[in-house]
Write a structure and sequence with these properties.
heterodimer; A: alpha/beta; Amidase signature (AS) enzymes; 11-stranded mixed sheet; globular; B: mainly alpha; 2 helices
């Protein structure tokens, strides 16, 4: 089997007994053996576990007791998601031999849904450093061109999904760590509403900004994966106690009547995105208009304001977590994580209070802007992936991020591919919605993806 | 906007309990300068209506 399936397609074939979960798993293990030496997407391949999971799924398939659309689907976890009895390193020397006793809540939920776990995926160190070349494992590389960056921190998930090594995987997003690699690797990735999925058992970076979410080839697949992740966890203080909706409920409904606001100044003046990125966004907006959505430009505070609030809170919260280790093992961290988080030492109490005040103002601003809108559109990334060896050390601080506004406010946001730039690498768009409007976001993203040719094209190495 | 120099950064890292070499201080300094610029954005004055009833600013008109 050489074709790379989506999760939705695999689920149909498994359900109708046209596809064996064991055969599907063996195909993906073979792809990992063949392609991952060029990608470094995996820190650990759990072949024995994968085959055991697949055999169990196949037994349920034969018995007519499949657990749902994720049963038998090959996935892998970003290596900050703890996995019972399986090494979880955060891609760091400090946790090189860390074997957790328990699964993260979301890992267990996916396992209970019948997924087949193929292994643990590369990340930027503790979901923040990177791309780093001074860690025990090399950084993941972009399957569209292995000389190029994946973005991060869910770098391994982005690379593995794009190359068809897995059908979906977990990511975490504190300032854009799901949507960034989704954008540069040409896949879909959603940062759900803050509190929608449990973070318990996921190594934290910044308490008030961390989100757990899925990454996959399509928005529809992200919806299926989020269905298996979301839900209240009383032991995650941020977890929201509300019913989990049907995340695929708006798939196929189109975009007619949706009200879309475009924060054009984010990607035209605040941080000018590439021609291909802007053209991709404009083409997507034309599509939405043609399909009956109402599209208009809106103005928010400069992207740099959201970026300043988010970045300064992120390094302060990360330092709060890591200070005890950093004081003892400063030089055991990779340079990028260490030097970025050490900057929290320059923050004063008033700085932190001021960041918190500004955050509240920005949250009100975005809520007001969304009051008569369904979707806010922006870029996900400024352009195609840069060369991995040429990513400046302070790149993620110097220019405002397009993704951080939705970590600061906690609103859900999805990145989807809008085509390819001059270098042949993917470009993308970001769609954000009101809290808990994920079904609508998936519906809109799906309408766009299925009308465009971009989901038919895989990296050459994966074909 | 305030600026930060190597001596001040070294002192801040020491106060935070972070062991560091002179090379590490020099490596972190460009990032510290960017953080100062981010602080500058946060400290730009807001109009009173931005935070009605929530805070008091001694210089707010």
């Amino acid at each position: 089997m050489s074709e790379i399936l989506t999760i939705a397609e695999a689920a149909k074939r498994i359900s109708s007994r046209q596809l064996s979960p064991v055969e599907l798993t063996r195909t993906h293990l073979e792809r990992i053996r063949r392609l991952d030496p060029q990608l470094n997407a995996f820190l650990l391949v759990t072949e024995e576990r994968a085959l055991a999971d697949a055999k169990a799924a196949e037994a349920r398939q034969m018995a007519g007791t499949l657990r749902g659309k994720l049963d038998g689907v090959p996935i892998a976890h970003k290596d900050i998601y703890e996995t019972a009895g399986i090494r979880t390193t955060a891609h760091s020397k400090l946790l090189e031999h860390h074997v957790p006793a328990h699964d993260a809540v979301t890992v267990k939920k996916w396992a209970d849904a019948g997924t087949v776990m193929l292994g643990k995926l590369a990340t930027h160190e503790f979901a923040f450093g990177g791309p780093s070349f001074d860690l025990p494992w090399p950084p993941a590389r972009n399957p569209w061109n292995t000389e190029h960056f994946t973005a991060g921190s869910s770098s391994g998930t982005g690379a593995a999904v794009a190359a068809g090594l897995i059908l979906g995987g977990t990511g975490s997003d504190t300032g854009g760590s799901i949507r960034g690699p989704a954008a540069l690797c040409g896949i879909a990735g959603i940062k759900p509403t803050y509190g929608l999925s449990s973070r318990r058992g996921i190594l934290p970076l910044a308490f008030s900004l961390d989100h757990a979410g899925p990454m996959a080839w399509t928005a529809e697949d992200c919806a299926l994966l989020l269905q298996g992740m979301a839900g209240h966890d009383p032991q995650d203080p941020a977890s929201v106690d509300r019913p989990v909706p049907d995340f695929t409920g708006d798939i196929g409904k189109g975009v007619k009547g949706l009200r879309i606001g475009v924060v054009r100044h984010f990607f035209e003046t605040d941080h000018r995105a590439s021609d291909a990125t802007r053209a991709g966004i404009d083409a997507a907006l034309d599509f939405f208009r043609k399909e009956g959505a109402e599209v208009r430009d809106i103005t928010l505070s400069p992207a740099a304001d959201y970026h300043a609030v988010g970045y300064l809170l992120m390094i302060t919260e990360a330092f709060t977590l890591h200070a005890p280790w950093m004081r003892k093992h400063f030089s055991d961290y990779g340079e990028l994580f260490r030097d970025r988080v050490a900057l929290a030492a320059t923050m004063s109490g008033p700085d932190i209070v001021q960041a918190t005040r500004r955050r509240r103002v920005l949250c009100h601003e975005m809520a007001d802007a969304m009051a008569d809108l369904d979707i806010i559109v922006s870029a996900s990334q400024p352009g195609e992936a840069p060369r991995i060896a040429e990513v400046p050390k302070w790149a993620n601080m110097e220019k405002p991020s397009f993704t951080m506004p939705f970590n600061v406010t906690g609103f859900p946001a999805i990145s989807v591919c809008t085509g390819f730039g001059d270098g042949g690498l993917p470009v993308s768009i970001q769609l954000a919605g009101k809290p808990f409007s994920e079904p609508m976001l998936f519906g809109a993203a799906h309408a766009y993806e299925t009308a465009m040719p971009w989901r038919q094209r895989r990296p050459a190495m994966a074909s | 906007m305030t600026t930060i120099d190597e001596t001040e950064l070294k002192s801040m890292l020491a106060r935070a309990g972070l062991p560091h070499s002179p090379e590490q201080v020099r490596a972190i300094l460009p990032g510290a300068e960017i953080v100062q610029r981010l602080h500058g954005r946060l400290n730009a004055p807001l109009p009173r209506e931005a935070e009605p009833a929530l805070t008091f600013d001694v210089e707010q008109k």
